Amino acid sequence: MNPNDEPAPDRPATDRLDARKLAASRREAMRRRARRIRRSVAGLAVALFTAAFLAVYVQLASGHDPALTAAKRRTSATSLKASAEQTSTEAAPAEESSTSSSGESSSGESSSSSTGAESSSTETSESPSAVTTSQS
Amino acid sequence: MTSTQVSLLATATGPHLFWIVSRAAGIAALILASVSVCFGLLMGGRLVKRRGPEMRIAHEALSLATLAAIVIHGLTLLGDAFLHPTLADISVPFLSGYKTLWTSMGIIAFWGLALLGLSYYARTKIGAQRWRKLHRFTALAWVLGLAHSLGEGTDAGQAWFLAMCAIVALPALTLLTARMLGRPSSPATSVRKARPRAQLSLRPAPADSNAHHRH
Cα–Cα distance between B20 and B29 in angstroms, integer? Predict the structure, then answer.
């Protein structure tokens, strides 16, 4: 039996084994890299969400939130406009009653008293908005 | 910061917790989507020659993270006391009464991203070539999402938000414009694309007809 004949069929088998091992190790390395990438992306997503949450939270807590500030501005502007309209409509009848005759003085008094009551009501209606504005 | 201050902050933001979570998730989704679109365009335009498998994995992970963030963005709105939307309001376009156009844009963008993105897992059934053609429309869904955030976003007028948008969206928009204009991304790519045609025309017809089909 020729000793040179034996290694010949074994060598391709060992080569094949080595190639398989190499392929398996490469596949494993790729799998490990993929896991690492997925983990870093998940970490990045969580970090982004946390940063955005903190930014919005601090903005809101410090009273600089764009939506809430705009809403408050709108509310205060509306209440101011309403109170101005009320005082202008109430001032006209008051002027009329003051220029009226002595026989109509009782009605004038009543109207002035009602104006006073309304003005006090507008003051009370304005006061909560003023408080909220000062809080903001 | 004292415990009193912390409790004061918690009380001040307590009713808006769902809203804050939704906004944060929306911002995170926008950034993740923009980065994912960048990766996709870089891969599709063959601008990156190495690290192809890694980029594909990162693109896939970023897309899934984007979808998760959008789901959080929408679902947390269900708990918001101000909007108080129904599930249909946040999932069906043109149904919500609140800024209908911008909201619908966001909803269409989400469905577009979800369907075109998740179709990757069914590309063998769809056909790789057809899937690749369909997948190009993901960029359109991303543009719709960007328009939704700029048109309806609470922080859209804020300098930090606009700066962030510019940082993440401008590179993607530049890549997208370059892709749409059909400019060759690099000389190497054009050579690579041209070579097989020349080889095919010069090469004699293969004896085995199956060999041609394998290409």
Answer: 14
CB contact under 8 A, A56 and B61: no
How is residue B24 written in tokens?
A: 């944060």
| For testing contact with chain B, the best of A27, A39, A50, A53 (most B CBs within 10 A) | A53
Q: Is the pLDDT of residue B117 over 70?
A: yes
Instruction: Show residues of chain B in contact with A42, CB under 8 Å.
Output: 61, 65
CB atoms within 10 A of CB B38: 20
Q: What would the mean pLDDT of B168-179 be, rounded to a whole number?
A: 88
Helix (H) / strand (E) containing B60: helix B52-75
Q: Where are the domains of chain B?
A: 15-186
Q: What is the mean pLDDT of chain B?
A: 80
- Å from A82 to nearest chain B CA? 24
* Nearest-CB residue to B65 (from A41, A52, A56): A41
